[in-house]
Each structure stands twice: as C-alpha cells, then as structure tokens.
Specification:
By secondary structure, this protein is an alpha/beta fold. It has four domains: about 90 residues, no CATH class; about 180 residues, Rossmann fold (3-Layer(aba) Sandwich); about 240 residues, no CATH class; about 90 residues, Alpha-Beta Plaits. It has a seven-stranded parallel sheet, sandwiched between helices. Strand 9, helix 8 and strand 10 form a beta-alpha-beta unit. Helix 1 packs across helix 9, helix 5 packs across helix 6 and helix 10 crosses helix 18. The longest helix is centred in the C-terminal third of the chain and has 17 residues. Its cofactor is Zn(2+). This is Probable replication restart protein PriA.
C-alpha cells in the first residue's frame, strides 16, 4: 500500500486526472469522480487498480477506471490518497461485463464488483508469480476428445471455439455418462490448444468432483495442481484470492468454480462451461440478484467467448436458446440415449396391482417397485431410493381433514420422533420451539388422529430395513452426503440432488412421493421435479444390463412421459411453448418490485412504462420472502411487470432512473427490484 503526505504532493506530469468509482453503495452516487494523481503514485495508479480516496470527509475504497489529461469538473480536485494494490484486477473486459450486469439487473456497479472480485490479501498477492506471456493458439486439426466419439458434432464446436468464433452449444448428458469426466476431457482439449477454460458448477460438491477429474486428465501430481484451480467460498478468502490471481495472471489454465467465478477475467479465454443451469444455487442471493446462466450468456455476447451449457435435463430457458438459433445442440449418435437409458415404469391406473397398492394407502411401494428392488439386490447391485424430504416425518397432517398439525404455543409444525405401528406418529414436538405435544387435537375438526404428510429419509430407511432384512440401508442428504457406494447389495435412501454415484451403476431406482415435488405452488415445480428424476435415473444401469426405475407419478402426465421416453429436450420445448402462450418466462421477462405499499404506489404513479408492459398487482409478498435488512416492514407487497424481451433494456433504464431518483431524495422506504426471480409467487 502506497500513500503520500499532503505537503509533498505534486500532480503527475502525465495524465494527472484519475477517474475513480468509489464503492459507496448508494445508487445516486454510483458514478465516477475525478481525483488528482500525485507524482509519487503515478506508476502504481494504473486503470483497474484498487485505490483509496477521500469522499465527504472520509476515506473510502474504489477502483481507478481511467487516467486522463484533464477533468470536466470546474472546481478543485481532491487527491488520490492511496494505491491499495498495483494489481489491475478490474480489466477492461470485466468492467464492461460489470456495467452490463448492473444495467440489465437494475443494480449498482459497486454491488456487482463485490460479486466479481474477491477481497485482496497482500500475502497471497506476493506469493503468485508475475503474469506469464500469452501462449497463443496452437494450430492444427482438432481431434475428437477421448470419450466423445459418439458425439461427432463436438469436433465442429471445438474447431470454432479454438478458432476464435463465438460458438455457443448445448449438451444434454446421456444417461450413465460421467459428466465430470466428459467435461474435464473437453476442457483439457481446449487447454492443449493454448487457451484457458472456465467451468462453473452449482456447489462445492460438484467443484470437488470436477476439479479432481480435471487434475487427473491434465496429468495429475504437480501438473494438476499448477494447471487447475478451484474457486469457491469454502476454501477461505486468502486461498481464494491466490487461486483467482493464478487464473487472472494466466498460470492456471482450467478454472473450476461456483457462481461468482463467471466473472473471472481470464487473459486467454477459450471456453466457458456452465453445468446444471436449473440448480437454484446459480441465483445470486445478493443485489442485484443476477442468474449465473444469464451472466455467462451476456459475457459470451460481450467478448465473444465460446459457451457450452451442459445438464442432464433441459430448462425452458436453454430450450429458448436452441429454438431461437442462439445456441446449437451437440447431439449424440442416433440410438445412443435409448441404449444407455434404464427402463422406466411410472404408476398407472391401468395396472390393477399398482392401483390397489397405492389407492389403498397401505404402502408407498407398489408390488412392481418392491420387485425391482429385490431383483437388483439379488444380483448384488445397490438400489437408490429418492424421497423429497430429509428427516423422519417432516410433515404431519390431521388424519381426518388433512389440516397441517401445528403447535398450540407458537403455531410451528409438529414433528414425530418415531412411528408406532399401532398408534401412528408418537413423541410429538414442535419443529420451531421444541415444546412437546402430549395431546394433539386438530384446530379445524377436533380430531386426535394424525397421518404422515411427507415421509422423510429416516422413516423411509426404517420401512425398507424391515422389508429387506440383512441388506444394509444408508441415507444421504442433509449434513451427511455420500459420494460413492460400492457395487454390493445395499439400499441408499437419498434426498434429491444428494444421490451418491454407484460403482457400476445402481440396479434400480425408486422415485417416491412425486406429488410432494409436483404439488409445490411454484412455476418451476414440474421443471425441478424432472431435473431431480433424470439426475437420479441417470445413475442406474442401462436397461440391457437390468437397470430399472420406478416413478410414483401418473404415467399419463407429460412430465412422467418425458422420463419414460428419456426426452427432457422435448418436455422443455413443450413447456416453453406453454409458457409463451400464457406469458411466463422465458418467453417474457418478469420484473418483481417489492416494498411497502406506499413505495409501490409511488412507483406505479411515476414510472413511464411502454404500453406493451403489463402491470400485475400489487399482491402480498410470497411466503418465505422478505426485504433484506428491513424486517420491520409491515405487510410488504409485490408488483410484477411483464416485459417483452425487446423492451427489457428500456424498462431497466426507466427502473434504474427511478431507483437513483429515490436515492437522491434520501427516501428511506426499502424497494427491491429483481429480474426474472426463480420464485415469482
């Protein structure tokens, strides 16, 4: 850190004016201010560096945007106080992306910069070698990467990507294919051509898995540690900044990270890969709430970096990319998916056995599902059982009227400690305050009877343990997630997304309580259910090797048929058409404006929106939502703006101007603007 004394200050001879963006966190001050650069800081004060300036009498951090010979400000300029670090972390490419994200998501550049650039650690900065010269693209024909021979179109994509063409592609992972290994091989193919690769995944578990595969593919040992780095919040601020610098200085050639890694300013970007875009972890919980998939797409457009979107399923948003021609599919050879997929059986009323078992309420496992599990265990294969919730019995209902069972003290949900074969749920206690409930009585009908609303992993494991004596039963989910299971008789009860990989694949998978996923009051409930089902079923052996999947859903429903036919692409295309018909994202954009009723009324009165924009509401804020930092707001409401894609830029500009004006008036009422929130209401 370099500083100067006021008495010794002399303006730099060359470009003495520095335009600085202070990190003030106030919308109406989200702009550059001019400062004089002392001669003593002239060499360190380069565009992109972190600096400290005096603003309104106090020292604040900021970024130096550019240097110039003169200022438009008519008065005297304050001095640049310090150069915190000579490292130019805010590159011109990153600055353009930050400005685009701030405009599109109606936010401040200071907020986006906090997402994009990790905090500085001086020791880490000194430990990373100086930037290495660009390697340049290796000439020569592109070879088919190992394991990709059944996807011949990948050669054309790699040829375009390494040739400087802004190629964009979509890859749906075939069943049984190790997506981490496949992406690692693809990344290494681009790396060997002299370019860097950025791989973005939802969570730490995926980061660890993909990083290990990448390090093994590039050669393992020291080469793996030098060429591959992982970026995520779990590694700690110092290690994260050190690895981020290794990527920014060009030493790391393959970068694996979670959502904030999408901003990493690589000097030689060759490919961005985003896997499993339907995961809610890609939605940034901090302002301005961008979605990682959309940031990656905007970055691809802005600087021409090739982009690959991979997933075991297909979201309507990606289906729109394909439909519009913005991205193209990397398709497998005909017949490959059917050859690798397990046989899927969904519940149907046409089968008397299934109908009797399920309708009678005596079991959650119809005879066909039990038979599948027994056949898998008989051939020494593990069985995967997916249930929507962890715990024992997360939800209890009145046995007569199905009203949720609530605590008489705090109105929290009642939980059962165990299930008695005669008396049903026993050892009742509140899930919020912990108070025991010795004498439950329904507030709606007065009944004392209870029934399970949703059965969790613990209760399911207990039931299966009695049905399959001698077979080991394990759970995965919550605080304990299994990574792999051996190829031996076992029953693995897992929550969605926590399924471990089985050596040689599972012999069978039972997807239970589908109604708990499909019945959620959410636009994306069916989409998420299919994503979880495909993810679990893809871990099962092919049908030719005996792999079977049972789905407890109506076989006639489109989503069940998508799994039976293994056609998530077709379902996404139909879902996209249905949403376009009723005016839901991604066919249109939905802007949610949340705040007190008085603030929303002022917004509706002052905004000058195009006639094509439809205003919906105001309505109550959806359950579970709150205004960050403003818990005291009474009855917050939400207004939805239905915006055609062509008008998004104009509407964002209008909203941004309104937010800046409110900030300049020092209006204390909190207002939050979110573009395409995952949970609309």
């Amino acid at each position: 850190m370099t500083t100067t004394r006021p008495a010794a200050r002399v303006a730099a001879a060359d470009a003495p004016v520095a335009r600085v963006l202070p990190l003030l966190g106030v919308p109406h001050l989200d702009r550059e201010f001019d400062y004089l650069v002392p001669e003593s800081l002239a060499d360190q004060a380069v565009p992109g560096t972190r600096v400290r300036v005096r603003f309104a009498g106090r020292l604040v951090d900021g970024f130096l945007i550019e240097r110039s010979d003169q200022s438009d400000h008519s008065g005297d300029l304050a001095w640049l106080e310090r150069v915190i670090s000579p490292e130019p972390v805010l590159t011109p490419q990153l600055l353009r992306l930050v400005e685009l994200v701030a405009r599109r998501w109606v936010g401040m550049r200071s907020d986006v910069l906090r997402l994009a650039i990790p905090p500085r650690h001086a020791a880490a900065e000194k430990s990373v070698p100086d930037p290495q010269p660009p390697q340049g693209v290796t000439e020569g024909p592109v070879e088919i990467p190992t394991g990709w021979a059944d996807h011949p179109m990948v050669v054309r994509f790699l040829d375009a990507a390494t040739g400087g063409v802004p190629a964009r592609a979509v890859w749906t992972v075939p069943p049984g294919r190790d997506w981490a290994r496949a992406l690692a091989v693809l990344a290494d193919s681009v790396r060997r051509r002299g370019l860097q690769v950025l791989l973005i995944v939802p969570d730490q578990r995926d980061v660890d898995r993909l990083t290990a595969e990448c390090r093994q593919v590039v050669g393992g040992g020291a080469a793996g540690r030098d060429l591959v780095v992982d970026l995520s919040a779990g590694i700690g601020p110092s290690a994260r900044y050190r690895r981020w610098l290794r990527a920014v200085r060009g030493h790391a050639r393959i970068v694996v990270g979670t959502r904030s890694a999408v901003f990493a300013p690589l000097p030689e970007p060759g490919l961005i890969v985003l896997h499993d875009d339907g995961d809610d972890s890609f939605v940034e919980p901090r302002a301005p709430y961008p979605h990682t998939r959309e940031v990656a797409a905007q970055r691809s457009v802005l600087d021409g970096t090739p982009l690959l979107l991979s997933s075991v399923d297909r979201t309507p948003e990606v289906a729109e990319y394909v439909r519009s021609g913005w991205a193209h599919e990397i398709r497998p050879e005909p017949g490959l998916v059917r050859a690798l997929a397990p046989r899927v059986v969904a519940f149907t009323d046409a089968d008397p056995t299934q109908a009797r078992d399920v309708a009678g309420g005596r079991t959650r496992l119809p005879a066909v599902a039990v038979t599948m599990a027994r056949e898998a265990v008989d051939v020494d294969a593990p069985v995967l059982v997916q249930v929507p919730r962890k715990g024992y019995i997360p939800t209890l209902l009145c046995g007569s009227c199905r009203t949720p069972a609530r605590c008489r003290r705090c109105n929290g949900p009642l939980r059962a400690g165990r299930m008695d074969a005669v008396h049903g749920p026993v050892d009742l206690a509140c899930g919020w305050c912990g108070a025991p409930e010795p004498g439950f009585r329904c507030v709606a009908c007065g009944s004392r009877a209870l029934r399970a609303g949703v059965v969790g992993t613990g209760r399911t494991a207990e039931e299966l343990g009695r049905m399959f004596p001698g077979v080991r039963v394990r759970t995965s989910g919550g605080g304990e997630i299994l990574e792999t299971v051996p190829a031996a008789p076992a029953i693995i009860v897992s929550t969605p997304g926590a399924e471990p990989v089985a050596e040689g694949g599972y012999g069978a998978a039972l997807l239970l309580d589908s109604w708990a996923l499909l019945g959620r009051p959410d636009l994306r409930a069916v989409q998420n259910a299919l994503r979880f089902w495909v993810g679990a079923a893809s871990l099962v052996r092919p049908a030719a090797d005996g792999g079977r999947v049972f789905l407890s859903a109506d076989s006639g429903s489109p989503v069940a048929q998508a799994l039976v036919r293994w056609d998530p692409q077709g379902w996404a295309a139909r879902e996209l058409a249905d949403r376009a018909e009723v005016g839901f994202p991604p066919a249109v954009h939905m802007v949610a404006v949340d705040g007190p009723a008085t603030a929303l009324s002022a917004i509706l009165d002052e905004l000058r929106l195009p006639d094509e924009v439809e205003v919906l509401g105001p309505v109550d804020l959806p359950p579970g939502e709150e205004l960050p930092g403003h818990d005291g707001v009474v009855d917050p409401e939400r207004v939805l703006l239905r915006v055609p894609p062509a008008l998004l830029a104009a509407v964002s500009t209008e909203l941004r101007a309104f937010v800046v004006a409110r900030s300049g008036r020092r209006n204390a009422e909190p207002v939050r603007v979110r573009l395409d929130p995952v949970h609309i209401g």
